């Protein structure tokens, strides 16, 4: 078997251990072929899709934008959606008069009023929706973001103190149950017998 | 010769049976029937280091997720019309459940971080090399499942962020053609995809993780704890040096339990300090949110090259992880002797960090349906 020199140990090792075998080359070819197939599929089908023309969905989109961003930029995007909702012919279940009032409220920077009006404008449409299937959102009302904990501070303090106690207690136990030696100590410890053996070997050599 | 540091809590010596306290005698009775002392098999001392305990900490996070998850499922309604409202109800009306939800939220991210660090440690110490290639693949599969669990958990709260994440996933599945069929709403068009993802989140994914974890642990036992490259004179060795002291495996479990307690405390503090909010109910056709931070690097790629960036980025990472033990034939385990592998890994980790940071400074862009 062909061998190559190993600079670290000063010995030789079989070349077979590092060379790419034909079987492994085949695995690599299969993996690369799979990647190219995926890449081809991605390139071929990465297109399509269009904006909705359904009136109540456009109004919901306006509400969605306002729920996340009530700045001037958010209001501007919401207004575009409201305009689309007013222009579309597919406005079953949508109270157009209320959508127009919502637009006026947005122009006057009355975001909360606009949200109320838009919700009222599509209430009939969302009430008539069938049970949600597939990717349907099933969204009936859009409430603003909710904070992740109730307002009452007392339980929070108790839970925080209990958590801190667990953190400290667990850390103490983990420290107490730590290994007897650090890796550096283990290295020194494992080196000692070898050193002793080497020394004994030197002493025995005439 | 290895020296075993005995576990004083577990001793079955018959000479001392009469003087042993009642609770130890009771443990003996249980042990006679369940064989618990089989867990006292020796493992090398370095196995109790934090770096070698990362897999155990990941398992501790999984336990926390299962317990808090079971509590949350008692109040969660997995139908689109009710899902967002039920999460709001959990936060505002069910006593203490906002805290349970917070711990669940942070434990999921802790599990992702510790699993990633565990994977990195295994890579750095060459522990994926012969004869542990199979166990590496099981670990990579579990890491994929952890990411899938994070994704499905994001969707379940059924707010705009979760819905947009789902939208991206469905579009990426469409790019895969038949390969992504399960993610397509057409797969079962009379059922909401939320219900199918809920079943995946609470049954399929944790079930697969538990099965793979069992295999993972059995293979660790079969191949023994991998050697610490800096402790062996020959860094091509597959086992820890015979001279390294050993401890009972129960010591490893004891330390992981202590670290698990500390983890629970840290997660509790995070849940109190940074409780996860509940976003507005979703609306189709808009993109106004960012995904969770573990997905940011892929979404920067998406901003650059479109939806296929998610597919290319995620696919490339997992292809490299799966192929690693078959491509890397360098027999050395110490990082100093693995320059090519270390250079490539450093480049990948640096790229993921940079792409993640870039996403932090960009705004959400519209890609769905484009």
Furnish the topology, listing elements before pairings.
The complex is a heterodimer of chains A (206) and B (370).
Chain A lengths: L2 E3 L6 E3 L7 H24 L9 H14 L3 H16 L8 H12 L3 H11 L1 H5 L26 H23 L6 H22 L2
Antiparallel strand pairs in A: 1-2
Chain B lengths: L21 H13 L7 E3 L9 H20 L9 H10 L4 H28 L8 H24 L3 H16 L17 H31 L22 E3 H25 L22 H10 L2 H20 L11 H22 L10
Antiparallel strand pairs in B: 1-2
Strand content of chain B: under 5%
Shape of chain A: elongated
- Average pLDDT of chain A works out at 79
Biggest interface reads:
A-B, 84 and 99 residues
What's the SSE pattern of chain A?
Answer: EEHHHHHHHH
Descriptive overview:
- The complex is a heterodimer of chains A (206) and B (370).
- Chain A contains eight helices and two strands.
- Chain A has 206 residues and is mainly α.
- In chain A, α4 (96-107) runs antiparallel to α5 (111-121).
- The longest helix of chain A has 24 residues, at 22-45.
- The two termini of chain A are 38 Å apart.
- With 370 residues, chain B is mainly alpha-helical.
- Chain B has eleven helices and two strands; from the N terminus they run αβααααααβαααα.
- Chain B has helices at residues 22-34, 54-73, 83-92, 97-124, 133-156, 160-175, 193-223, 249-273, 296-305, 308-327, 339-360; strands at 42-44, 246-248.
- In chain B, α2 (54-73) packs antiparallel against α4, α4 (97-124) packs across α8 and α5 (133-156) packs across α6 (160-175).
- The model of chain B has no long low-confidence stretch (mean pLDDT 91).
- Classes of the chains: A mainly alpha (206), B mainly alpha (370).
Brief overview:
The complex is a heterodimer of chains A (about 210) and B (about 375). Chain A has about 210 residues and is mostly helical.
């Amino acid at each position: 078997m062909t061998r190559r020199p190993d600079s670290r140990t000063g010995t030789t090792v079989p070349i077979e251990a590092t060379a790419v075998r034909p079987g492994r080359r085949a695995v690599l070819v299969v993996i690369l072929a799979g990647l190219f197939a995926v890449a081809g599929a991605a390139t071929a089908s990465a297109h399509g899709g269009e904006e909705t023309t359904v009136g109540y969905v456009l109004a919901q989109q306006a509400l969605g934008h306002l729920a996340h961003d009530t700045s001037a930029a958010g209001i501007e995007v919401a207004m575009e959606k409201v305009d689309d909702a007013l222009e579309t012919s597919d406005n079953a279940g949508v109270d157009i008069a209320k959508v127009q009032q919502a637009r006026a409220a947005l122009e006057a920077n009355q975001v909360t009023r606009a949200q109320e009006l838009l919700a009222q404008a599509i209430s009939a449409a969302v009430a008539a929706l069938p049970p949600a299937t597939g990717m349907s959102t099933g969204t009936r009302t859009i409430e603003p973001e909710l904070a992740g904990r109730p307002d009452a501070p007392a339980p929070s303090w108790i839970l925080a103190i209990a958590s801190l106690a667990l953190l400290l207690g667990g850390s103490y136990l983990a420290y107490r149950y730590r290994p007897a030696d650090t890796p550096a100590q283990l290295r020194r410890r494992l080196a000692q017998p070898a050193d002793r053996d080497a020394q004994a070997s030197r002493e025995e050599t005439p | 010769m290895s020296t075993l540091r005995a576990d004083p809590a577990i001793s079955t010596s018959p000479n001392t049976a009469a003087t042993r306290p009642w609770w130890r005698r009771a443990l003996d009775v249980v042990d006679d029937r369940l064989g618990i002392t089989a867990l006292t098999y020796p493992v090398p001392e370095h196995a109790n280091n934090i770096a070698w305990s990362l897999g155990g900490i990941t398992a501790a996070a999984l336990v926390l997720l299962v317990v808090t998850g079971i509590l949350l499922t008692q109040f969660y309604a997995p139908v689109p019309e009710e899902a967002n409202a039920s999460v709001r109800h959990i936060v505002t009306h069910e006593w203490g459940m906002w805290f349970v939800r917070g711990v669940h939220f942070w434990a999921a991210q802790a599990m992702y971080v510790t699993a990633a660090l565990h994977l990195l440690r295994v890579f750095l110490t060459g522990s994926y090399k012969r004869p542990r290639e199979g166990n590496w693949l099981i670990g990579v599969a579990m890491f994929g499942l952890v990411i899938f669990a994070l994704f499905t958990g994001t969707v379940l709260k059924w707010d705009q962020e979760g819905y947009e994440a789902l939208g991206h996933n469905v579009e990426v599945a469409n790019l895969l053609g038949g390969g992504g069929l399960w993610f397509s709403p057409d797969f079962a068009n009379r059922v909401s995809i939320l219900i199918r993802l809920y079943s995946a989140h609470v049954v399929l994914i944790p079930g697969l993780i538990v099965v793979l974890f069992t295999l993972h642990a059995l293979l660790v036992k079969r191949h023994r704890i991998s050697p610490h490259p800096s402790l062996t004179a020959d860094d091509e060795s597959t086992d820890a040096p015979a001279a390294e002291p050993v401890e009972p495996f129960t010591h490893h479990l004891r330390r992981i339990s202590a670290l698990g307690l500390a983890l629970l405390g840290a997660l509790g503090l995070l849940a109190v300090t940074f409780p996860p909010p509940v976003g507005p109910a979703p609306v189709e056709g808009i993109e106004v949110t960012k995904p969770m931070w573990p997905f940011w690097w892929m979404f920067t790629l998406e901003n650059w090259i479109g939806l296929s960036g998610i597919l290319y980025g995620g696919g490339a990472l997992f292809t490299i992880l799966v192929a690693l033990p078959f491509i890397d034939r360098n027999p050395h385990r110490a990082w100093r002797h693995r320059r090519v592998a270390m250079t490539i890994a450093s480049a990948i980790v640096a790229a993921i960090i940079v792409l993640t940071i870039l996403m932090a400074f960009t705004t959400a862009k519209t890609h769905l349906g484009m």
